[in-house]
Amino acid sequence: MTGAVNELVSLLVLLLFLGPFLWMVVMSFQTRTQIFARPPLIWFRPTLANYTDLMNRGVFLDYLQNSLVVVVLTVLVSLAFAIPAAYGFARFRFRRREDLAFWVLSIRMAPPIAVVIPYFLIGSFLGILDTRFVLVVAYLSFNIPFAIWMIRGFIEDVPVEVEEAAQIDGCSRFQALRRVTLPLVGGGIAATAILLVIQSWNEFAFALFLTTTEARTLPTIVTQFLTFQGVVWGEMAAAASITVIPIVIFAILVRKQLITGLTFGAIKE
């Protein structure tokens, strides 16, 4: 009986979270008349007109390319900076270490909209607005602190004696990190990279305010359907569906790596 209740509660929670997404997907296959029908239509003849109109706009593939380039660069650079910093916080003892670590994390606490104006002014002064570069820099300022704290926890779960044994065998500290520690925390690094991909792909505020046409990413395409004549709900739903589907597929494909990484070190002997 308890198991049935748990399954029912889980199903209700799942429907609660999936309801808006499923409604959006259904709406993307409806005409304007069907979308505004009251009561909402359960049975209707689906149409691909919204997707056809979306592709005819000619900017979708450009936005998709921008998203892919920005996400890949952001994740790679974030990990390149975060791994050495996380190792330093995890292995070295220095004055006010925890205060500095918390200061790094506090950067991540600020909402993007709170700092978008300073980024806009700096980008305007340097002449880098509406470029992929300004987006990568903006995303790094939030992703690197997050990655440092994630990877630091994984490294701390590796006994320091393992590295000391490698150093006794002739490895330098860097070689011990590269040959011993990083392979052991590979699952955690993969989980961190997955979360960085999701965060960077879904980011909206920086992509909207720091770009205009050339470097716009996929999430901002929905703003094109807010016209003076009203909201083009069908095409907006189609654009949102296409934007969400790649990251959903990605999350499904890497779910095992994500779970393995996030549970690394959870069981202590």
UniProtKB/TrEMBL annotation:
One of its GO terms (cellular component) is plasma membrane. Keywords: Cell membrane, Membrane, Transmembrane, Transmembrane helix, Transport. Its main location: membrane. It comes from the Bacteria. InterPro entries: BP-dep_ABC_trans_perm (IPR050901), MetI-like (IPR000515), MetI-like_sf (IPR035906). GO terms for biological process: transmembrane transport. Residues 64-254 form the ABC transmembrane type-1 domain. The chain crosses the membrane at residues 63-88, 100-121, 133-151, 182-201, 236-254. It is a multi-pass membrane protein. It is found in: Cell membrane. Belongs to the binding-protein-dependent transport system permease family. This is ABC transporter permease. It comes from Limnochorda pilosa. The lineage of its organism: Bacteria, Bacillati, Bacillota, Limnochordia, Limnochordales.
